[in-house]
Each structure stands twice: as C-alpha cells, then as structure tokens.
Structures
1.
Amino acid sequence: MMELRLDNWVPVNVPNSKKGTYVVVRSKMHRGILAFKYAPLVVEVVDTYFPELSGLTIYLYATYSALGRYHVNAYPYNLALNPVDLKREPNEYVVHVIAHELTHLIQYNYDIFVSLGQEYFPLLYAKRIPKGEEACDLYTYARHPDLVVPGRGGYIGIPENADPEEVHELALEAIRLRNEEGVRNYIKWFKERLKEVV
Ligand SMILES: [Zn+2]
C-alpha cells in the first residue's frame, strides 16, 4: 500500500478570477505546472466561455492516460489534465481540451446548471446534453468558434482549412435540428456537413 502523504494534498488555490472561480490543484504529481500554467488557464476558459460555471471551485488532477478527463467522485466539479502530453500542444488546442472536459462536467451535472445555463445558452440547454464523446465535442464547438481548432479535434476532427465560425454555426444548427425537429442522427448530419465546409 502506498504511503499517503497529506502534505502533498494541501490545496493550491488559484484565485485569479474577478468572478470568484477557483481551481484547486489536487495532484501531488506535476504540481508546479498544474498550479502555475494549467490552473490559471482553466479559470480563464471558465470565465471566458462558461459563464454559467463562473464562481465554482474546480478540483484539478493530473492524468497520464488521456489529454484530459472528467471524473465523478464525491465532489462533482473535477477535471484532470495531462501535464506531459499537453506541453506539446498549442495553446488553442489546450483550451479546446479544457472546454471539452468542462462540457463533460455539464453533461453530468445538467440538472444543477440547466436554469442558469438557459440564460446564457438557450439552445445548448434546451434539452439534456446527451452522453458520449462526439456529443461532447459537438456541444463544445457550438459554444464558441474559439473552441474549434482546424486540423485538430478530439472525437470529431475538424478539417484543416475549415473556418471556425462556419463550424460553430453548423454545430448550433445540428443541435437545433435535434432539439426542435427531433433529428436523431444530428451528429452524423454534422459530420457530413463538416466535409463540405472546406
Ligand atoms: Zn471526453
């Protein structure tokens, strides 16, 4: 059994948000880079693109098996980032990864955020966000064009020459089709249209 060292778990708060968003680093591995590079970036992504999550305290862990992860434990607002692999990624893609994980956080806590979310993003919160990775990417792209990174993309890849604004609009339209017209294969619809945006 591993020795549990409590001194490793003293939280590092990153209180650099006017809106009161906190990120508490809960990893004993790669604490420095998580606290000084990624925690402020998580705060920035929350306050810029996820106003409905502003003011939350988010626990940040390290993961080494994916670029990012959302996980549920006793505390609902957790995410994990890969401090090794993300170092090789451009900032805009790191922002996408953080946003993708925050979208998972909303998928799993929809009931908590639905009324506040509807004030900011009526279309995204009109219906429960479906589970799944592709849905998570789609809802991330529908949130803001900055979260669309041409030539990259986790589960739904974005063509290299795509215009982020156009992809963003397409994602919104796919969600509208799902919400208002009962289109069940809205993700397939989006992926097919995506091939035509270049
Ligand atoms: Zn995911």
2.
Amino acid sequence: MTTPEPAPLYRDCDFNGPLSDDHSARLIGTLGPLDGRHVVDVGCGWAELLLRTLASAPTATGFGIDIGEGAIAHGRANAAERGLADRVELVVGDAGQWAGANADVVFNIGSTHAWGGDPVTHTANALEALSGLLRPGGRLLFGECFWTREPTDAELAAMYDTPRAQYRTVRGLVDLALSYGFRLRALSQASLSEWDDFENRHAKAWEEWLVENSGSPDAEEIRALSERHRVARVDGWREVMGMAYLTLVRV
Ligand SMILES: C[S@@+](CC[C@H](N)C(=O)[O-])C[C@H]1O[C@@H](n2cnc3c(N)ncnc32)[C@H](O)[C@@H]1O
C-alpha cells in the first residue's frame, strides 16, 4: 500500500473521461423527455452524469452500478448532498454478473470493458448487453473510443499495447451500433481540449504527491506510474484516440 495514498481521481476530475460541463449538458439534451423516466448507468464510476441528468429532470429516477467501491461511495455522498438520494440507487457490482433491469435510458460511457472478454470484443459485447436492457424507443448514451486515424505500432505499444482491432473509425463504430438494432439520434466527440483537461486533472494527484513526498520509499512507484501514463498520453492516444458519444434509439 502506498503511504500516503494519492488523492482519488474524483478529487480532481468531474467525470472519469474527456467531457466538459457544456458537452455533458448537450448530451443530456439528446435524451428526449426525461419526465418519469428510469435511467440506468452501467460502469457509472461516481455517477456524475447520472446525477446531473436527475438534477435536470425532477421526476426521473436512476440506478448506477460500478465495481469500484470508492467511486460508488463518492457518488452516494454527492447524491445526498444534492438532494437526489431518494431518486437514485448506486450499487457496487460487476456488470458482467448483473441480471439487468428494464430502463428507458441507459448510459455506458468509457465502460464497455465492464462485460469482460477479449478487448477486441468489448464494444460488440456491450452493445448486445445494453440493447437487452432497453425497451423499444428507449435511448442509449454510448461513449466509446475510436481511432482518429490508423495508429502506428509504436503508438499502440505506448498505449499499454492496445490491440489495433479494439477500436475502429467513427463510421465503423456507428455502423456497428446500428447493426445491434439502434437508430442514431445524435453524435458528438470529445475535443482535444476536453482530452487535455481530463489528462491534466488525471495526472494532478500523482504530481502533487511526488512534490510533497519526495523522500517516501513509495516515490519510485508513483513516479513510474506517472511516467508510464505520460508516455501513453503523449506518445500514444493524444494523437490518435478519439472519444465518441452516440445517442442511440432502440428500434
Ligand atoms: C473510464 S471509467 C468511466 C466511468 C463513468 N462512466 C464516467 O464516464 O465517468 C470506467 C468505469 O468502469 C468501471 N468498471 C470496470 N469494470 C467493471 C465491471 N466489471 N462492472 C462494473 N463496472 C466496471 C470502472 O470501475 C470505472 O468506474
């Protein structure tokens, strides 16, 4: 165990992904009337987008599931602080083992890996599982990475050896989603400045920790983590990885 523990990601990041306040509000606006709707977020993290959605729709209810205990505890505390605790249930659990529930709206953002299996099958596995959670006419907000151009072998290696076939072009991602029985209602993507803002916040706790604990026996471990992440970012995904947000309507 690292002593002291670096601050959790939620101290510095609003969302666990490249998403600004404005963009999140625009995504919520693509979900259609939310009055009385039930919104389910799979791999919700600390459920910030779910909480903002419920705050915007006073009669909507929500459910979020994530495997991370710390993230769920933080999401519950935020729900209570914002007066949303009676309309949202946040649970610790493995999406792959979860039986699911009928929903009007489902979110799956940056979390296609929650169903496990080979990384090259994550997107398809998620779309299949998510389509089973929605009633016809229900909406899926799906956030998934894509290649902005063909990555080089060196870039893939820098990105923790991401398999080339794990992601596709935006066109390929949309085509795949439609093949699982959806229609495309809206499409947007994270800007480079949203990515940079997320990455800068992501690295903040490690960099602060290194300044404040330079003599710690754990400094080498934290420095290595931070350095590896910098390589993944600067030599890898900053040039080639995009994040697309698809609002899909279940046929
Ligand atoms: C990149 S984060 C995205 C979190 C959130 N959707 C957001 O956009 O802020 C991916 C999340 O998937 C969760 N996750 C990974 N495997 C999971 C599993 N088997 N079941 C449920 N959640 C899982 C992680 O704990 C993490 O919170």
3.
Amino acid sequence: MSITLYHLEDCPYCHLVRRKLEFLGLPALVIPVKPLGADRKELKEKTGQSFVPALIDEGQVLVDSSVILEYLDKKYGPVEMPSNDYGIAVELEGEFGAIREKTIAALKEVGFGLLTEIDAQATIKKKIDKDLEPYSILGFCNPGYAYHGMTNEKDIGLLLPCNVLIRELKPGRFKVTALHPVKMFQIVGRADMMPLAKEVTALLKQAIATLGA
Ligand SMILES: N[C@@H](CCC(=O)N[C@@H](CS)C(=O)NCC(=O)O)C(=O)O
C-alpha cells in the first residue's frame, strides 16, 4: 500500500485527512506544499490541479477533503473520528439553577466573575422555534489576566471571555465544561504567552475540580 498526501500545515482540510489516516492506521507519505497562492509544481504535475489536500492511493488521484474522507472510509474503514478534546469538564447530578450557581461560585473563588450569559435553549426556541436541551454559555473574566492578554496580543479579545458551557446530558445530569486556554492558545501561536494560558488553565481546572468534589 502506498498513500501520498499533499499537505499544507495551515490547512484545516489537510488536517482532517491526516486525522482520518491516523484513525485508520494507514501510513502515508506526507508531502508539504508551498503556502497559499505559491507555485505548487509537483502537486500540479502529479494531480493536475493545485489545491490541497490531494491524495494519491495506488495511482488513483483524489482531491477535496470530503471526497478523500469518503474514499478512505469506503476502502479502509469506516472509522468514526471523535471531536478533539478542547475543554475541562465535569459531569454533575442536580438541577440546572443550582449547578449554575455552584459554577459561578467556583469560578469566583479562583478570581473569575460572570460577564455574559447566553441561554441558547431559549434563544434558539425564540428565533427559529427549534428545541434544544438546556444549554447555557457563561462568559467569565478575570480583569488582570484579560488586561495582560489584551495589551500583549491585541486580537486576544476574539477568545474572550473564558467560556464555560453548562448543558444537560439527560434529565438531572449536566456537563460543565470550561474552554481549555492552553489548547485555544495553540491557534494564537505565541509561545511567549503560553505561561499566561497555563496559569489560567490551572485556575479553571481548580474551579471545575471543586464542582466535582
Ligand atoms: N473544498 C476543499 C477546500 C480545499 C482548500 O480550500 N484548500 C486550500 C488550502 S486550505 C488551497 O489549497 N487553496 C489554494 C491555494 O492555496 O493556492 C476541501 O475540502 O478539500
């Protein structure tokens, strides 16, 4: 078996294909291509086009991630790809109002105040008349960390405030999940700001742990 994948590090579609190959346990020769807009001579010669991802399997050329994923599943799978884990979570028994209060208190304990709140269940019902399980997105902020972040990385506001999701798994059982700052900071790509992300992560982990205790 010989699979070749033309891959661009910044391309999310390429990563989907790489993950699928990993989940299927398929070894592949991964050939990096030049960035967006650049001349991709070898890719063009081998596949007749210049988009990535492009996969060649035993002489068969496939382009477009959805076509490739379907092909791989059909030939070598199928295999489910679970979503990435990008939260710090705990599951709790109880009633929504009490769990919400407990969550706010636990975050307050580590220095984060409630700033925003979206009742997605009510909003979706009101806007498009669809039913959703209890699903609330709470935005927390520690002004000191936020100020440090905003003054050192101007666009960091795109990731603020720190979201904590409370959603119902089944009647009387909820999952409380804080977004994982270190994982979010990977998309920022600033190694020098990782200590800040780690500090905030430790505090959020502490708060989530007390909920489960
Ligand atoms: N629908 C395609 C989209 C692929 C795509 O947009 N690839 C981008 C990189 S993420 C690309 O190769 N653009 C042309 C270029 O970089 O010159 C898929 O799912 O594979």
4.
Amino acid sequence: MQNTDPRLERLLFNLDALAELGEELTSQKDFNRVIKSSLYMIIGTFSASKGAMFQFDHEQKIVHPIASKGIVNINDMTMKLKEETVEEIISLKTPIDIKNNDKVALLIGMGKADLEKLKARILIPLVVREDFLGLIFIGEKFSREAYTKDDIRLLSVIAHNIAVTLHSYSLLKKLMHKYDENKKLYENLSHIYYDTIHAFATAIDAKDAYTKGHSHRVSAYCAAIASEMTWSHKELEGIRIAGLLHDIGKIAIDKSIINKDNPLTKNEFIELNSHPVIGYEILSRVKFPWTEIAKISRCHHERVDGKGYPDGLKGNKIPCGVKIMTLADSFDAMSTDRPYRPALSASEVLIQLKENCGKQFDKDVLQSFFSIIRKEVYGENRPAILPLLRDSFAYQLKSEVLNGSINSFNPSKSRRKRVANHTIV
Ligand SMILES: [Fe+2]
C-alpha cells in the first residue's frame, strides 16, 4: 500500500492485533497458555520491552502474577490489596501512564524497587462490571516513544477483552468448585443412604436363623432379571433397594414365629402373613427416588393366578417389579434351607419354576430369568446369580443348563411331572 495515511495504517494494524487477540482468547487452548499468549501479543503490538499480568484473588485479596515477559523473579511480586484500594483501581477504568506517577505505585502498595523491576510504564486495570479481576503492566516501548492516546484506547479495548475472559474463567472455576462440592455432598449422602438400607436388610435377615443374606441375594437376583428385561438405570437401582427391603415388615413379627419349624397355628400364620402390609406401611412413609418400592414390598407374595396375598391381585394388575420380586424371592427360598425343609436340588427348583409358570410366576419374567442363567453358564454374561449360590447348587444348575433342561423351555408346553409338594416360599 503506497502513501497510506499513517493513522489509517495504525488503525488497520490495531484491528489486526485485536482480531488476533480475539482468536487467541476464544481458542480452546489451556487457560494459562491463552493468558500468556495474550500478554505476548500486547507486548508485541506496542513493541514494549516487558510486561506482566496479575490476577486478583477475591478471597485472599491479593494480586498474583499469572504471566510475564522479560521480568525475573516475578513470582515474588504478590501484592495484598486493601478494600479501598480495589475500589480506587475499579474507578480508574482506563489504562494510565504511570511514569513519575507515585500515587499509583503507592495505591497498589508496590514499592519503587518493584516498579523499577517491572519497568512499568502503563497500568491497565482489568475490570468487568465493577468486578476487579487483575492488572496488566507494560513497560516502555523499545523506541522510547510515549504511548499515544490511540495506544491507550486500543489497550483499553484489549484490556476489556482479557478481563471478560478472566471473568468467564473465574465464573467457570467457581461453578466447577460448587459442582465438586455438591458432588461430594451427594456421594456422602448416597453412601449414608445405601449403608442405611444395607443395615436394614441385615437387620431383617438377622431375625431369621435361616435367611442370612436372603435380602441381599434377592436384591441381586432382581437387578439381574430387570437388567435382562432392559430396565433403565434408575429402575434397576430402585428394584435393588426394593429387594433389600421387601421383607422389612418381618421386623414387627415375633421371632419365634419366623423361626418355627413346626406347622404354624392359624393366628401365627395370620401374623406372619401380615409382614407385606406392615412393610408397605413402613416404606410408603419414605420418599424413595423410585416410587414402586413400597408397593413391591406389599405385593411380593401375590401370584399371577390371583391366589396370593394380601390383595389377591391377578395377571396385569400386578406390576412387573412385583413379578420379578416374587420370582427372585421364591428362587432364593427354594435354593436355601428353611426351618421346615432342607433346600431343594437345582433340578427340583427348575421343575417347580416351570410348573408354576403362569400360576405363581409370570411367563416373561421366568423366561428372562432362565435366559440370564443360560448366559451366565455359557459365559455370555458377567456372573451375577451363580456366584451367590451354594457351590453344590451352582454345580447342579450348570449341569442342568448344559443338559438342555431350560434351553427348550416353552411355558405353554410346561412339563406335567411334579416333584414332592414343597412349599415354594
Ligand atoms: Fe416375604
């Protein structure tokens, strides 16, 4: 370009510098690199000898260096600012020439030696909407020329852009800090919540000499079946909790009834069978994230043929979570010793499950359960059920599966052969 007006040339140069700065400030680079290269750009634009950028820490009321060029031992130059100092700096608004301006040096509490070290010529306050964010010092120009009014105007625009970046960054940091705090709080509460529920489950099972670990196993079986039925994460967590608490009503039942190995009297039977309703009374007062938990406790002795208790619900009137719970609860009852009978063999359990398909158990839930067992035996699923079984039972179950006992299971052609008339729950 020939014979161009030097002011126009300067303006174009300034626009270029601003565009470059804007690109730098909005880049995806690491914050420290962005700040550093922004400072370098300012120094380069004005052909200055030195420069430094300081960030204000609102909590400690100090400004500390975050970038510098041409200054040694900059890290020692952390300055404590008084409240009124911050207010005065905010009121400065625009960059100021501090040559022979002792008032400014005094204002920011910087000794003459420090100013000498910085060779500071211009002080640029970084302020966004009355929020003081930091300071930039830049030194003399190499040419020793004074900073012009245009230079000061350009520095003012540059400072505003950098201040906005610092402001966004400190907001983001505060937000991240709050997020971390809330996350920790949530994790603590979550641990307390799960620990409490596990403690309840252990207390429930402790009432029954035969059901050690029953609630924990039922919880795991339920989650495995629900997962096979593609339930959501929230629902899986819900049914896990429901499994741990389904028998909570037993807390109110006399221990001697729960552990009785002789047939129960009519009144004892009524008392024992009241545990689902008591469980519902307890759990319906608790606000769980998944609302079905109390209902599952109430209905876990319902049957799809309507012959269960306490409400005699039938078929589709029974929620799917209840059907899963019924199967998980019964499977655990059948595969472990009870006061009134020893554990059934795996082959007997499978026969009972098939025989009661459509009566006590829902067909889809049973098929999903068999599907998981098959997948675990053939190594297609991470084992969730097999590790919870007694070794001998797990061994028998694997043999049954490998012999094809449940591979060809078709609920409509369920085997008619019955085993001895065992109580299933
Ligand atoms: Fe029960």
